[in-house]
Amino acid sequence: MAADPSSQVLVTGAGGFVGQALVRALAQHCRVTATDRSGLEFADLVGVTAVPGDLDDPALLAALTAAPFDAIVHLATVPGGAAEADPAPAARVNVAASMALIDAAAAHGNRPRVLFASSIAVFGDPLPAYVDDATAARPMLRYGAHKAMIEEWIATMTRRGAIRGLSLRLPGIVARPLGPSGMKSAFLSNLFHALKAGEPISLPVSTGASCWLLSLRGLIAQLCQALDLPADPADARLNLPAQRVILRDLVAEVARQTGHDPALMDYEPDPAIEAAFGRQPPLATPRADALGLRHDGSLGALVAQALADL
Amino acid sequence: MAADPSSQVLVTGAGGFVGQALVRALAQHCRVTATDRSGLEFADLVGVTAVPGDLDDPALLAALTAAPFDAIVHLATVPGGAAEADPAPAARVNVAASMALIDAAAAHGNRPRVLFASSIAVFGDPLPAYVDDATAARPMLRYGAHKAMIEEWIATMTRRGAIRGLSLRLPGIVARPLGPSGMKSAFLSNLFHALKAGEPISLPVSTGASCWLLSLRGLIAQLCQALDLPADPADARLNLPAQRVILRDLVAEVARQTGHDPALMDYEPDPAIEAAFGRQPPLATPRADALGLRHDGSLGALVAQALADL
């Protein structure tokens, strides 16, 4: 797929943090249609068609899916914090529009590959003492429930042979850009920006908080590999490999690589944030490992990759 | 709940086969608001408020949920055959409107009891050799996926403490009225009508087909009991007790009780219908059994109950 220059790939949420990087990676190998409400800055790329608009707009969806795609990477989402603040539009984008997109893409009969950016938010909190491929979804956030619901839709449509779907549970991806993201886990990225700038920052978790993390480059590599994996109608869900990082170790490594003082970090744990993002237990991903997907390899490599993209 | 005359209960899909019987049963004990697009014939009942309209209409939903309910029984649905024939409106009612109803009901902060009429369609086909409370959802029909998705929403909202939810997986309910129901399993009811009238009928399954069945009266009793069960945030899904009936035995018993010839039945198995509705394996429902829910007890009792309501 990623290596076939005639392949047509649709990327939703293409103006976002992950979407922009994915479009740039895919454009080296195939033809990309990129859609988002904003952020479609791909004029420098050959073979990328930008289609601005809201996925919740039936006219946009109809225009987007008028011709078949070989693959779709569905990243567009209203994230966790934003979905809690304004539930109705979040449900329209995260659930209704996602179902409509999948149905429209399937209607051409070409069984497109569909990668869905799900989230470890499907596991909710508190997490069990150990998470692996058999751990059941048990969301607590609206966002997590939305993701679990679309996982079910994709699994059903894959069993029916309408698509070749795969829902990928993304861990925390670092480091996202500064600014309002609507994500409750934004502090994990903001600490990179603060340390690089030598500025103090208050973190809403404890120094012992444990988080599953993957760099943006690590994620893009996994997404490109996943496009070419064979579809498995028996299990259309996959936990992505990630490193389990203790916050004090992460801060120390970012400080070391940026040459700043880890004492710039102040810790004011918020029990809800700590419960949702700071108590992630050991994670095993044997299915993804067997498929050849890899995390960044070491804390040093994760931090270096993340800092390189700031 | 069902025994408290000041309780306010909302029934959606109240004009349907199950809804009409449930409203009549509840009206003996509490105050009922009944909503549906049609079929709200409750002028003879005291304490029933009929609110006609489409649950997919935001104005109707806002009017319905302006005041809190102690309990909601959400029966309204676009059934399996109709959902396959016209997917988009089915998704709006079965998923989007169902989410909006639950959110609106929860917004009063009174943690209403919410019973959701899910379906054994969440199990899809082929079924494993044995089904019990641990069997995973694996839908094949759009309708089954819709039900599994709303089960997830109700489970999440129950874990959050917003509602006291319970999704009940309904087996085949007999005998539904004749006429277009949009249900692929309509043949299970139509055979009662044909034998009672002494008319021939062709069934789309084999004589050895096995089906999980419950009479309407048996279901109404289970629903009324379920209204008063304590909510279990750890598991908001429940398989209802049902009898596993072999079609030739069912036909023989209906023929015996109606005094007609079982040879009126002709069998022309449709592989898809047989797979979806005619290969239901032994079913164990220990959780529901422990909660005191019961099926009709015997094939004779099931058939007698069903014939009494024709």
From TrEMBL, chains A, B:
The NAD-dependent epimerase/dehydratase domain, residue ranges: 9-203
Any single Pfam family the record assigns to this protein: Epimerase
This protein's UniProt keywords: Carbohydrate metabolism, NADP
Record keyword Lyase present: no
Alphabetical list of Gene3D superfamilies matching this protein: NAD(P)-binding Rossmann-like Domain, UDP-galactose 4-epimerase, domain 1
Keyword Secreted: no
Protein name in the entry: NAD-dependent epimerase/dehydratase domain-containing protein
Native source organism of the sequence: Blastomonas fulva
